[in-house]
Amino acid sequence: MNKIKIALVGYRLNRGGAERVGAILSTFFDNQGLDVHNIIVIDDIGYPYAGRVKNLGKLKNKTNGPFNKIKRLIALRKYLKQHDFEYIIDFRFRIKPIQEFLISRFIYNTKTIFTVHSAKLNSYMPNQTFLTKMIYGNCFKMVSITKEMQLMIEQKHGLKNVTTIYNPVNIEEITQRAGEPISLDFEFIIGVGQYDTNVKQFDKLVYAYSQSILPKNNIHLVILGEGSLKPKLIEIAKENGVENKLHLLGYKNNPYKYIKRSKFYVLSSAHEGMPMVLLESLVCGTPIVSFDCKTGPSEIIEDRTNGLLVENQNIDKLIENMNLFITDKALYQNCKRNTLQSAKKYSVDTIGKQWLELMEIN
């Protein structure tokens, strides 16, 4: 009996949240006996995955000009025709309408599921509804990763083929890797993400930390990630007298061992999709303080049960809630106790089964 063949299309198998979801699902689908093919656009593999890889990134040259892009599109079309997939799941962000129209109409050749991973919808579909309907109106499904995001898509573009499936987490893997040792010998809170753009708003986090009671209690701030805004973050820390308590440790292949040992995680983003790092923090037993930004935090955090939800972009409230986790020890311990249990509904087995049901695979 031939295996059901599915293609998971992403930019890479490293670093990003959507890429992490693709990698986790590749392993789940492989374990279910599906023939999994990971098709990536950028030559960057770091996450554990299962199945075969078609690395279109190896065809990319330094100029990345029109002819090189066409070459890669032709290679993608050839690969899809060669393998005759039953489903294609696209995890990429999609910001070029003409390119995406061509891909959806002339390259993708079977039932296609497009995923949306950010409240910034124009990273995945055009602002113009007529273009969005031309590209996605007739696809098999669009999968939003939060209910709020699904509602945003339906209200903005009137699509009828949208459903919600939350991001999965591999609880066993995270628990195992979180047990590895770290070399930090001080108490700290943590934030994780890139800072080439300011979506994560680590400048606000550094400022809020400096105005909180944490520095006086000798609780440091650790940020994992990389980006061009590093000098700005250091400058803010210096201006507010906390430069010796801010630790920018760069990108870490295993962030879990740091998250597990942090007092709590802080999310200060302008917007999100469904932040994987919040789910991972809960698995690590680390409660959360988060802006109630669009989208994700309000569907992950039960206020005062596994974390604290803060009025969106209210810096004073962020400082107040960070302080609360230090001064109200009973509240903190209550939230900490509920972390792992509240993450179990996002386990890869639970979420993976929802994907199989969507694809009508028994």
Beta-strand residue percentage = 15-25%
Shape: globular
Instruction: Summarize the main sheet.
Output: 7 strands, parallel
CA distance, first residue to last residue: 14 Å
Strand order of the largest sheet: 3-2-1-4-5-6-7
Q: Architecture of the largest domain, CATH level 2?
A: 3-Layer(aba) Sandwich
Indicate the multimeric state: single chain
Query: On the 0-100 scale, what is the average pLDDT?
Result: 97
Content-based structural category: alpha/beta
Going by CATH, what is the homologous superfamily of the largest domain?
Answer: Glycogen Phosphorylase B
In the CATH scheme, the class of the largest domain would be Alpha Beta
Low-confidence stretches: none
Radius of gyration: 21 Å
Q: How are helices and strands ordered from N to C? A: EHEEHEHEHEHEHEHEHEHEHEHEHHHH
Number of domains: 2
Number of alpha- plus pi-helical segments: 15
Number of strands: 13
Structure description:
By secondary structure, this protein is an alpha/beta fold. It is 41% helix and 16% strand. The model has no long low-confidence stretch (mean pLDDT 97). It has two domains: 176 residues, Glycogen Phosphorylase B (Rossmann fold, 3-Layer(aba) Sandwich); 175 residues, Rossmann fold (3-Layer(aba) Sandwich). The two termini are 14 Å apart. α5 links the parallel β6 and β7.
